[in-house]
Amino acid sequence: MKYQEGGYEIVLERGALIRAGELLDLDRKVLIVTDDGVPAAYAARLASCCAEPVICTVPQGEGSKCLETLTRLLSLMLDRSFTRGDCVAAVGGGVIGDLSGLAASLYMRGVDFYNIPTTLLSQVDSSIGGKTAIDFCGVKNIIGTFKRPEKVLIDPDLLFTLDDRQFSAGMAEVVKMAMTCDKALFETVERSDPRDAIEEIIEKALSVKKRVVEEDEKEKGLRRVLNFGHTLGHGVETARDGELLHGECVALGMIPMTAPAVRDRLIRLLEKLSLPVRAPFDAPRAARAILHDKKTGAGGVTAVTVKEIGSFVFETMRPEDLIGKLEEIRA
Fold this sequence. Notes:
With 331 residues, this protein is α/β, with parallel strands linked by helices. The chain has helices spanning 20-23, 40-47, 67-79, 94-106, 120-126, 164-181, 183-191, 198-215, 230-239, 246-254, 260-272, 283-291, 319-324; strands at residues 2-3, 6-7, 9-12, 29-35, 52-58, 87-92, 112-117, 131-136, 139-146, 151-154, 296-297, 300-305, 313-317. A six-stranded parallel beta sheet has the order 3-10-7-6-4-5, with helices on both faces. Strands 11-12-13 form a three-stranded antiparallel beta sheet. Strands 1-2 form a two-stranded antiparallel sheet. Helix 6 (164-181) packs parallel to helix 10, helix 9 (230-239) packs across helix 10 and helix 9 (230-239) crosses helix 12 (283-291).
């Protein structure tokens, strides 16, 4: 990733975790944050490369993105006398990356942060771009910072232990980027078995994310395109209390925001990837979550729509019109 005032390296290679001792500066105290759904061997492998590793394992799921868990991480760093010269490393999916990145940005006003994503969703999307956050008072990602990692290690070998549902959820973010920015990527996913073409898919998806974030790091304009599917999706995710995965909700959220000419093609691809195209949820609760979303302002909601695959349009929509679209995906 390159910015006018510097950037950071993204390493995409099989076996990157095994080479972590060569690729990262671990000759110091390292808080390794992971969750109980990630194979313990991954954190242990990273710990074996560190001078002073401290492993913290939190419960799997969105529920860990909270003030209580953040306090636990910060307290642990304080108790172990971490200094500004020490660092935090995330070994897990998007929840772990968001949570540990936020802790790294806050402790002593910022310590180094490394991200080692272990899910497809985090490898193609949340591991780069610098967003960190926790949920608060029932609102998703409402407290957070922009914290650039020092380096991101993306190791496709870590996906071998990923179950089919989690893999499909990650592919929803790939489809999001393909729908808005890369028609060729969309066609690659259409014609191939994603697991067989995973390195190509990750590389192309990262290329889209990298290009967008380098132009608009703080989401003042272009980066809003990455919210495609998220405005409605976050509402459904809140209404289902985490029973649906983030990627599954993004898949649902994309459908009403596409023109009829491309919607059938999108639905066919989502069904191929075993992603939901309709789901039961409490519509009033989803609507309340949408109204509290960061993308909602006094002038309406800035929504991303797709009329042709590979391109997008920003539209300002009235909240009531956007909320009405929930019925198109509610079972």
